[in-house]
Amino acid sequence: MTKSRVSLPANAGDDPISGSALALQPEALAAFNQLYGTLWSRGVLDHPSKELARLRNARKTNCVFCKNVRFSQAKAEGLDETQVEQIRDGYEDSDLSSRQKLILSYTDTFLIAPNEIDDALQNAMKGEFSDEEIVELTAALALFMGFSKIAVSLGGMPDSLPTFEMPTPD
């Protein structure tokens, strides 16, 4: 069952994003889609790294759509469902690589207490990622968090979805 806390316009799209409450702000939705596509398809950070952060955010915000979509480029670059299943609380003891665990740790800190990005976490990030990659990851996290919270708080997303793959935003 899908419940929306606002009335959707008659011209809302068919996909979960353009068919959501965001359709009430078409210019903002278009700007989001452009920025989101830029971060995904014209950035410097690899797609599996961004996808790990996006999926961890989805689990923290409980966005049904975000939790169940997989972007094709991350999958093509090697992110698989075995890894995705480990993006849960307790990932520290998982089989994920140290780089993947670092991304999840940075994501959690960003989402929960961004002022607690201490010297140790900052140094670990700088040891693994370029400054450009850190900025891209952080900007992506802000978008993931903000827009998933919009979707969750306004409603209108399906209550459940199967896991599915879709093209990477461009």
Q: Regarding CATH, which class of the domain at 46-157? A: Mainly Alpha
Q: What coarse outline follows from CA principal-axis ratios?
A: globular
Helix content: 55-70%
Oligomer: single chain
CATH architecture group name of the domain at 46-157: Up-down Bundle
- Number of separate helices: 8
Largest beta sheet: what is the strand line-up? 1-2
Number of strands: 2
Strand content: under 5%
Spans with pLDDT under 50 lasting ≥5 residues?
Answer: none
Order of helices and strands: HHHEHHHHHE
How would you sum up the major sheet?
2 strands, parallel
Structural class: mainly alpha
By CATH's scheme, which homologous superfamily of the domain at 46-157 applies?
Answer: AhpD-like
Rg (CA only): 16 Å
| Mean pLDDT over the full residue set | 90
Distance between the termini: 30 Å
Summarize the structure in words.
This protein is mainly α. It has a domain at 46-157: AhpD-like (Up-down Bundle), CATH 1.20.1290. It contains 8 helices and 2 strands, in the order H-H-H-E-H-H-H-H-H-E. It has helices spanning 26-41, 47-61, 64-68, 72-76, 81-84, 98-112, 119-128, 131-154, and strands spanning 69-71, 164-166. It has a two-stranded parallel sheet with strand order 1-2.
Task: Outline the fold blueprint.
Blueprint: H1 26-41, H2 47-61, H3 64-68, E1 69-71, H4 72-76, H5 81-84, H6 98-112, H7 119-128, H8 131-154, E2 164-166
Parallel strand pairs: 1-2
Helix pairs in contact: 1-8, 2-6, 2-8, 6-7
